Amino acid sequence: MTVSCPDxxxxxxxxxxxxxxxxWLRDLVGVSPLRCGDCGNRFVARTWNFADLTHSRCPRCFxxxxxxxxxxxxxxxxxMKSMIKLGANRWRCEYCRHNFVDFRSRRETFSVNRWxxxxxxxxxxxxxxxxxxxxxxxxxxxxx
Length: 144
Fold this sequence. Notes:
single chain; three-stranded antiparallel beta sheet; 3 helices
């Protein structure tokens, strides 16, 4: 999602509940009420990019960088299981920790380096030098 908060410029946004019938109708065509996670500002913005409709995105925060999950990590409900049997993909948004299934492919793969940058920008700190974390698996240490 390329939308950012008009007050603080943050991209840490989530969908706010519709307050009126008009907002609900606009939400059906891709103009959603959003709330900034940093400053709490509520605003309405276009969240649909027609080029992105062919790819899967998180239904909660509209991000397109997704990871996969297995049934060992998450117990899907009956509807999800039936969709998986029909060929749906298992996606997880690491930003809002939402697991979902979708028949569309993902646009971009989740990156730990992008996740670190996201957390640093949320904390307001400047980037630190990379240090080896003994608790982090080797596949997550940012190597190509």
